[in-house]
Design goal:
Blueprint lengths: L1 E4 L15 E5 L9 E5 L5 E4 L19 E6 L2 E7 L23 H26 L3 E7 L12 H4 L7 H10 L6 E2 H6 L25 E5 L1 H4 L2 E6 L15 E5 L3
Parallel strand pairs: 6-7
Antiparallel strand pairs: 1-3, 2-3, 4-5, 5-6, 7-9, 8-9, 10-11
């Protein structure tokens, strides 16, 4: 099973996935976003925010962007998320310290609205899966790192989007022994990495200066079945197809 984010193309350009069943939402923003779940097994049900609008108040403004899909498989609901990147709050925006044009915190506010609403939607979807006898697995580019071990230079990162204290607190509140387990951190242990994103700028990739923002969050029973994690990082910068690398988790499920 594969979960893909940032497809960045319309459905007509998506292509075929031989031997896979594709659950896709490309969204309607040209050249942006788009998510997909590819599974060997045909899902018994699929849900996108286009066909099944999110119920949590505050998510309607994002429903057309191609950010979330779900597929029901045997004993499992898999969700794929591409969370908004966001930006810095206004008080942290200084000339020369941000890549984008200062926006008085607009992108930051939009991301925080998404996080607030999605927390309710995620909890509802997790509970619905468990009530139906299925485990729940959220995969995706969350554009959030949680712990110091998730960022190479974590001290200055505390004033960067994706590692702000309030963003880290949001992700920490989603994780718990009775809610969702951070599978990659559990397998990798309390040590740096495994990184999954490196900037295109400079020698970040070569020097392995990056972030862990691509996550597997699973209900506790499913998390206990995880046995191995690998980040499929290319061997050289010239081979890179993306600023992310696939995060591969093996689950021992009969």
């Amino acid at each position: 099973m594969l979960a893909l984010q940032e497809l960045r193309c319309p459905p007509s350009e998506l292509g075929d996935f031989p031997r896979y069943h594709a659950t896709v939402d490309c969204g309607s923003v040209p050249g942006r976003n788009g998510v997909a779940i590819l599974s060997r097994e045909a899902p018994s049900a699929v849900r996108t925010w286009t066909s099944d609008p999110p119920r949590a108040r505050g998510l309607a403004e994002y429903a057309h962007e191609g950010r979330y899909v779900e597929a029901d498989l045997s004993g499992l609901t898999v969700a794929c998320l591409y969370l908004p990147k966001g930006g810095l709050p206004a008080h942290l925006q200084r000339p020369g310290n941000i890549r984008d044009v200062p926006d008085d915190g607009a992108k930051y506010a939009r991301k925080m609205r998404f996080l607030d609403a999605f927390a309710r939607e995620l909890d509802r979807n997790r509970r619905a899966a468990l009530a139906a006898g299925r485990e729940f697995l959220l995969l995706g580019d969350l554009n959030l790192a949680h712990l110091p071990h998730d960022v190479t230079n974590w001290r200055p990162a505390q004033k960067m989007e994706g590692f702000l204290p309030e963003e880290r607190a949001w992700l920490g509140a989603r994780i718990g022994p009775r809610r969702l387990v951070d599978v990659v951190r559990t397998l990798h242990g309390d040590r740096p990495g495994p990184l999954s994103w490196w900037s295109w700028a400079g020698e970040s990739f070569t020097k392995d200066v990056g972030w862990r923002i691509d996550h597997h969050l699973a209900t506790p029973r499913l998390a206990r079945a995880a046995v191995d994690v690998t980040v499929d990082k290319e061997s050289s910068p010239d081979e890179r197809l993306s600023d992310h690398a696939p995060v591969v988790v093996e689950y021992a499920i009969s």
